[in-house]
Amino acid sequence: MWGGVECTVNRVRDAYFHQLERCGHHSRISDLDLIAALGVRTLRYPLLWERTAPRGLEEANWSWADARLARLRELCITPIAGLIHHGSGPVHTSLVDPAFPEQLAAYAGAVASRYPWLSAYTPVNEPLTTARFSTLYGHWHPHARDERTFKAAFFNQCRATVLAMREIRRINPAARLIQTEDLGKTYSAPQLAYQADFNNEMRWLSWDLLSGQVHNGHPLWHWLIDYCGATESELAWFRDNPCPPDVLGINHYVTSERVLDKNLAQYPARYHGGNRQERYADVEAARCLATPTAGLRSLLVEAWQRYRSPVAVTEAHIDSTRDDQVRWLFECWNAAVTARAEGADIRAVTAWAMFGAYDWNSLVTEAKDYYESGAFDVRGPAPRPTAIATLIKQLAHGETPAHPVLEGPGWWRRPERLLAQPLILEHAKSSAISEARMTAMRPLLVTGGRGTFGNALGRIAALRGLNVRLLGRGELDIADAGAVERALDRYQPWAVINAAGYVRVDAAETDAERCYRENTLGAETLAAACARHNLPFVTASTDLVFDGEREEPYIEGDSTRPLNVYGKSKAAAEVRVLERHPAALVVRTSAFFGPWDSHNFLTLALRALSSHSAFHAACDITVSPTYVPDLVNACLDLLIDGEAGLWHLSNGEAMTWAQFALRAARMADVDHKNLHACRHEDLRLVAPRPRYSALATARCNVMPSLENALQRYIAEWRTSRSEPATRAA
């Protein structure tokens, strides 16, 4: 098991995107100890040219690299030094600069001279992919979209790799080249087979060129010369100066395998493309094939048979929910194990993005703070290990992972993955792994399944490939210890989430006994039973455990002092649950809004305002609105990660109810002249409320922004309406 740190430094016009700075690894040398504790002993690690010598070798600053490499040696971790990672070099050069190869080689020689013990290098990560993104698709600098510029960028990177390894081996003759590339495969119906064949030849081009195998008989020879403007002397240089990889590094993503389909109407516009002859959709194979492909195992065997060189999976990562992240890494591991058993020389699987990645959903062309966590989540005061870290540690130590989510299939194997009528292609090898049925999994037991939170848990857990069993009040009295025991015995869950309880805040003032029975005794009874059975347990609490006598958001360690019966019942539940089950997860949240509950505050507000009715909202009570789908996903992720104790989950902004309604109305283009901000006394609420109960977290901010949540909520709200939104006056 190898590891890797996402370290891209890509240029978009005159802006540089630095992943190491955004994920914080740049300033945390202690991260290396976290990696070592997982059992990782080989690490793809950045010694990036743009960062070390941005103004030339004469002004290079080696202090960061010196400290990190020294610590890696102390930890007995072998680094694979990366010199360019989707980059284009310092500002004084670029991928199409004729001097680029010699300049990178000079930097490589300086690295080898300073660290002669370094034994493994990736001078340029994914040269073919970087050239495509920069010069065929125009995403990154120099933002070209033509084959001739592509050839210049691609040849420059490959030539730089050859010259860099020459300089490195002048210092350390035993240094190995671990050459990475995204290796996928393209499938198509017969009428587009010519394009699929071209794509499938092109995917090998980095390794073919470096190995000196591009000659007059090569399938892409005429394309390189006739369309890309390559000369025979340029191609001869690579044949005369071969630098075959010592290890083929395959970077594998769920998007790596593609299907070409002429039926454009079947797919969203973002998939539409084509070549000089015809238009077609270029779609992830997982999104359109009736049967999943043979996947990574087949690709590994194919690479081994083509080159007969050692192979490693040098990136395995997926941007998804935690359960699917764990499933993806484990599936990649099993594919490598199977390929090795079939005779391929497979050396490793690399858990990529150990500290996550930012904005790869836009191919890092924008800075919108979209974060994908990895083995560690860096959105808190310190990196927080996730379930991926646990899986890495188990695999590194030869243990058999047994997390219950591994019993279910990833989204790329579930029926809902499909965008359109599934395609059946005879020449697409199918996977040996069938589309598993979720009913084979042990269930996640959810109490209170008829309420807002429970209903959302049921919907989202099912979408995530989790077998969920919802129990309503009539099916399980959570305050009855015998009934709870019988339910656990009957359903044999792997975890329990308590979404049940008494939620009528005002009615609780005159119905305290029932409120305490459902909110306090019920939660305590469930926690005690889960502790006896060693089951993970999650229960929900509220911002109403606070008295509101402050002007800044509350964090987990702040003292509780509830003002009403409901808040007191929840505060008591928190204490009793954690006494009974210290490993339980208690989630405080605030001010629900969501797409599936017609009675939440925001839905009522927009419904009234869009029909030109008056709507009153308090302007003197401050809360932190929470989008229910985000809350559910965060709870499930934290449950799978094995988190415990008190957590505050909200979408991270403090505002009054009136401000919340106004903001949503403006975003939805709904006339808000009938929105009336008022004092909470005017609403004639029975139960006293804290005037300020906004929540913040001192642990880890795992929720998206409120702006992002509102955009998604309003899109759902518009879809659900039969008439168009009324435009604001």
Commentary on this structure:
It is a single chain. The chain is built from 23 helices and 30 strands. It is an alpha/beta fold and 729 residues long. The chain folds into 2 domains: 2-209 and 247-258 and 288-405, Glycosidases (TIM Barrel); 442-720, 3-Layer(aba) Sandwich (Rossmann fold). It has an 8-stranded parallel beta barrel, surrounded by 6 helices. It has a 6-stranded parallel beta sheet with strand order 20-19-21-22-23-28, sandwiched between helices. Helix 13 packs parallel to helix 14 (322-341), helix 14 runs parallel beside helix 15 and helix 20 crosses helix 22 (657-667). The radius of gyration is 28 Å and the shape is elongated.
Produce the secondary structure layout.
Layout lengths: L1 E3 L4 E4 L2 E4 H4 L8 H7 L4 E5 L2 H4 L10 H12 L3 E8 L14 H15 L5 E6 L1 H10 L10 H25 L4 E7 L2 E4 L4 H10 L2 H6 L10 H6 L5 H9 L6 E6 L4 E5 L10 E3 L4 E6 H4 L6 H13 L3 E6 L5 H20 L4 E6 L5 E2 L12 E2 L3 E2 L6 E2 L1 H10 L47 E4 L4 H12 L4 E4 L9 H11 L3 E4 L13 H21 L4 E6 L22 H16 L4 E5 L2 E2 L7 H10 L4 E4 L3 E2 L2 E2 H14 L3 E4 L6 E2 H11 L7 E4 L27 H15 L9
Parallel strand pairs: 1-4, 1-14, 4-5, 5-6, 6-7, 7-9, 8-10, 9-13, 13-14, 19-20, 19-21, 21-22, 22-23, 23-28, 24-27, 25-30
Antiparallel strand pairs: 2-3, 10-12, 11-12, 15-16, 17-18, 26-29
Helix pairs in contact: 5-7, 6-7, 13-14, 14-15, 16-21, 18-19, 20-22
